[in-house]
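for the writeup, i need someone to sanity check this before i put it in the appendix. the sequnce is what the collaborator sent (i think, or maybe the updated version? ugh). structure was predicted straight from it, no edits. if anything looks off just tell me and ill rerun, i have time this weekend
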Amino acid sequence: MRIWLFLTIAFVLNACSSAEPTVKLDKPIAYPTISQSLTVPPQNPYISAIHSGAFQKPGELEPAVEFWRKTYAVWHRSEVAFHDDRYLDVIYEVMVLPSYVDESLTSEQKEMINQRRDFWKAQLSVLESKLLYNMPLDANDRQMIAKLESSGRKLNSILNGAAERVRWQRGTRERFKHGLEISHRYDRQFRKIFRDAGLPEDLAYLPHVESSFQPTARSSAGAVGMWQFTKAAANRFMPAGHRPARNSLTGHRPTHSRLTGHRRVDQKPTGHRLADIRIDQRLDPFASAIGAARYLSYAYGKLGDWPTAITSYNHGISGMKRAQDQVGRDFVRIVEAYDGPAFGFASRNYYAQFLAAREIASNPTQYFSEGLQYEPPLVSSQYMAVE
C-alpha cells in the first residue's frame, strides 16, 4: 500500500511539472553532494544580537528580517515567493506571474499560484517518503536537500512537516515605495507625538507594516485607518477631544452640529440642508498616532520590552502576556515555541516586519536607487495639537 501511494504521488508530480510558469531562483546556490552535506556539521550563521537604539534585533530573527526586506524592497508585486512559513530563509523559488499584474490578483493568477504551491507540497512529501523508506534519490532530491540544509539546520528537523508549511508571499515593492512617499507628509508630526510621549521616535514607521500609510485602509477584522484601530481600541486609547483643523481626507474644516453635537464636514451649497456627518477619528492620522502612542506606552509598561509590546499591536496585550507566562520573557523563545490561539504567521513575524520596514525607511535610497517622489510635509495649519 505504501509503495502504491508513493507511485501515485510521483505520477501527480510529473503531471504538475509539465506546465511550469516562469520562475527565477531567489539566488544562486552551490549545492553540495549528499556526502558533503552529511559530513559537514550544520551551523547557524545568525547567532549575535544587534542593538540599534531601543529596538534589539536578536540574531535568530535575521532570516525573518531579511525575508521582509526582500518582500518590501526587492520582490515586485508580479513576483511570488514560495517558502517555509517557519524558516523564512528557506525559499524554494520566486515565480514571476505572466502578463500584467495589478494590486489585486485575478482568479486565474490565484489559481496559478495555488497550483505551484501544491507542486512544492508534493515535491516535499515525496522527498520525505523517499528518505523515510530509504529509496533512491535523484538529482532534484539532492538539490532540495542541499537547499534545506543550507539554512544551517538539521535535515530531519526542517523536512519533517515541511510540505504542510509551504506558503507563498507576493512582493510589495511598489506598495512600500508609495508608502514611503506618502509617509513624508506625516513623519515630522508623528515623530513629535512619540517624542512628546517619551517613546522612541522610530515607532512612527509602524504604519508601513499596518497600512502602507493609506489613511482609509480597512481590514477584514474591522480595523480602520492608517494606524488600523478597532473601535474598542479607539474608544480606549484615542483622544476624545481631538478635532483636526482640516479633515485629513477632504481638506475641509469640520464643524459641530448644534442639533447632534457630531462633527460635520462643510460642503459646497447644494440647495439642501447640510447633512450631519459623524467623523470616524480612526481616519484621522494624527488622532490615531496619538492613540498608538498611548497604546504602545501602556503595552510596554505591561510587557516590559519593545519586541513584545510591538507584537502586541497585532496580537493584543493579553495574548502576549499569556505567551510570556507560558514560555518566558525571551522574545525569540516566544516566536519559536509559543503556540497559543491565533498566534500564527502574522503575529510571529510582526516584529521582524517592523524591523525590516524601519531599516528600509531609515535609508530608502539604498533600496530604491531610482529615487522617490516624496509628498510635501504638512504645515502647522493643517493639523491641531491635542490639548
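The chain has two domains: 2-43+76-171, 175-382. The chain is about 45% helix and 10% strand.
thx in advance!!
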